[in-house]
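In this section we walk through a basic example: taking a raw amino acid sequence and producing a predicted 3D structure, encoded as discrete structure tokens. The instruction is simple. Fold the sequence below.
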Amino acid sequence: MLILTTAVAAGALTLSACGSRGEDKSGDGSKATVVIGLDAPLTGELSALGQGIKNSADLAVKNANKQNEVEGVTFELRPLDDKALPNAGQQNATKLAGDKEVLGIVGPLNSGVAQSMQQVAQSNGVTLISPANTTPDLTQGKNWKKNDRKRQFSTYFRTATTDEVQGAFDGQYAYEKMKAKTAYVIDDQKTYGVGLASSFKDQFTKLGGKIVGTEHVSPDDRDFKAVVAKAKGANPDLVFYGGEYPASGPLSQQLKDGGLDAPLMGGDGMYSADYIELNKKAQGDYASSVGKPVEQLPSAKKFIEDYKAAGYKDRYEAYGGSTYDATWAIIQAVKQVVADNNGKLPDDARKKVVDAMNKVSFDGVTGKVAFDKYGDTTNTMITAYQVDNKQWKARFSAEFKKFDKS
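The resulting token sequence is shown next.
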């Protein structure tokens, strides 16, 4: 979200003379304040990821101000908590979009939450960019599997690649690198989990793998006795889980306690240090995540150093780099809009920021940041990780482009 702390006056945006949001903190009357808001689960079971997202966006804002990235503009961050609940995300989007000074929203984490926010953002012409959403439907529609792809929302963007890419990568990695020939597939019935599991199954079976069983669980389940019994009976080489770490951690441990000698594999929703903390038998499990590990990217060196220097108590987690890039994309869009209007924010800044987002291109923390005609990131790099000695260790990274997005 961007909130211009300005007042509209006869066809121009001018600095408000009263109220704390309109104060010129520089003291010279030349600065407009732009607040970049953030929607993520800042409390609840997914708060480890949410806090990493919040901190990374905060770091981008601080760096933009420090280097005076946009002349005449001071940025601030205003994070909002959606608790990973679609109705909370929708309420946040409605509240923010209802303010005509809001130019954009960073977030959310969950694809299911994004579905509740997209129409609100579209109806109000406000930019929505997620560092973590991976469900293909969000950008390309429900018929993407038939290669009938149509952009759903002109205001929606993301810096995370889709589950079409990630799930297919997982399926190919499992079959070719892990040498798994059979898999038991479980999903949590949520938008993200179902889509990821489906994409995994498609690619795994296409290559010659066999799905020996499927099961659906609730994301709130923590007792998996029935599932463990079925999975053990199927005796797969691998169990694949479409969902997030609060459930997959206990599931993995219970599968192994139940006597199933097979690793659990999942996507980026599983790739968190908290997964290992929740699972005493996480050793050997796998998870994929979008992009390459930031620790291996020269482009991320400054981000890591700055994050450490800022003293955040929470880790940047899986989406730190992509969040920084998502926030920086909005900053760059604002920069272009201001430059095109002789150094001032125009009356129709909201619309022009959306237009500028389609043309954004820069070298970010995660690599080249740009968007295709659907609003998807052009960066399709995926990394497979494995738990080794109570840490996620990167095993393999590759760009996955074995599908037609023409």
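Looking at the output, two observations stand out. The CA atoms of residues 249 and 353 lie 40 Å apart. The longest strand covers residues 32-40. In the next section we compare this with other chains.
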